[in-house]
Amino acid sequence: MEQLLYKVEDRPPMLITTVLLSLQHLLAALGGIIAVPLVFGGALKLPADQIVALVNAALLGSGVVTIVQCRGVGPVGIRLPCVMGTSFAFVGAGISVGLEHGVAGILGSSLVGSLVMIVGSYFMPVIRRFFPHTVTSVVVTMIGLSLTPVAVDWAAGGVGRSDYGAIGHLAIAGFVLVLVIGFVQWGRGIVSASAVVLGIACGYVLCLALGLIDFTQVSEAAVFAIPQPLTFGMTFPVAGIVAMSIAFLVTIVETTGTFMALGAATQTRIDGKRLSSGMLCDGVGSAFAAVMSSPPLSTFAQNVGVVSLTGVASRHVVMLTGVMLLLAGLFPVLGALVVTIPQP
Predict the structure, then answer these.
(1) Which of 48, 170, 265, 278 has the fewest CB atoms within 10 Å, i.e. the most exposed one?
(2) Nearest CA-CA partner of 140 in 10, 307, 7
(3) What does R_g of the chain's alpha carbons equal in angstroms?
């Protein structure tokens, strides 16, 4: 078994090291966290200020629940390096509810639907038996494979762009990919551990030199804004509650696989009790997110990949990522700055 650079309870010796390692988890997750509110906003044709409110709430909710998931509060939280964020598993159901009942219907249905995950968390010791080592190994592989289409789309410039697949996008993506692999394979210590953020930083400098960075969103973003609970109100349509409850059932299976993969990546045994704590945090976190006017949350698989790639399994590193997400929710200009990173 490959030796971890930092184990679950380890703390990197220097603050700058912790910040760098936390930042790459932030960069890996931020696109996905922001994307879901943007998709909802576009599908429901919301005005710009309401979309911004959704994004800020999603960032704040993700930050708070990430901290709880990593640190643990009583029986809530798996106490592993786990990044939480808005989930695409709820997009289909959410849009169907939103087109008829608006954002208030999505949030109310999410709040009630989260009870499925909260109640389901108490049955995780039974569900755990269906995830022996063989199944976990397949899940670990499938997480990587399932993210491949996302990586290809981002390397091509992003779905929907008129220049999708342009040679310039592919060249930049290839440049960053080679750098990341090089840092991982031949770098030592912090260079290897922070390969992702270093690769992105070099790619960003290249894009800046080529004039490919658009700072419009940064100039338009508010410096400080506090997301307000129940900004959109809440309604509780029966059909919406059923649809979101089914989405939560699907997410239980998906999240179980992600937790098992995280256990393998961190060399931690995931027993039924630990699985219950993590799933309970997902459910309670989604209920909190709904109150804060954010779409539901789930554990991000791509950050399990970051742990596997870097060998950094410290939950304290990812707790700082949660703090960064929380600050991004309070300071929209920070989130807007990260959004300027071109997808390749």
Answers:
(1) 48
(2) 307
(3) 19
Angle between helix 133-155 and 301-310 (nearest 10) = 100
* 3-state SS assignment for residue 119: helix
User: Which residues neighbour 287 within 8 Å (Cβ) at sequence distance 6 or greater?
Assistant: 110, 111, 114, 115, 118
Whole-structure pTM value: 0.83
With beta carbons less than 8 A apart as the criterion, state whether 200 and 341 touch.
yes
Burial, 122: exposed, middle or buried (Cβ in 10 Å; 0-12, 13-18, 19+)? exposed
Enumerate the β-bridge partners of residue 312.
Answer: 6
Dist CA 206 CA 184 (whole Å): 20
pLDDT digits (tens, 9 = 90+) for 239-257: 999 999 998 988 898 899 8
Angle at 34 between CA 193 and CA 43, to 5 degrees: 150
Report the phi/psi class of residue 331: left, alpha or beta, with left for phi > 0 and alpha for psi in -120 to 50: beta
Residues 6+ positions from 31 with CB-CB distance below 8 Å: 154, 343
Token code pair at residue 219: 């100039």
Q: Residue 185 burial (CB < 10 Å; 0-12/13-18/19+)?
A: exposed
Tens digit of each residue's pLDDT (9 = 90 or more) over 111-143: 999 999 999 999 998 887 777 777 766 766 775
Measure the CA–CA gap between 226 and 238, rounded to whole angstroms. Answer: 31
The CA-based angle 12-256-5, given to 5 degrees, is: 20
Report the alpha-carbon distance of residue 23 to residue 20 in Å, rounded: 5
By the 8 A CB rule, do 322 and 60 touch? no
Six-digit token string for 125: 């010791």
- Report residue 36 as tokens: 């879901």
| Pairwise CA distance, residues 293 & 42, whole Å | 17
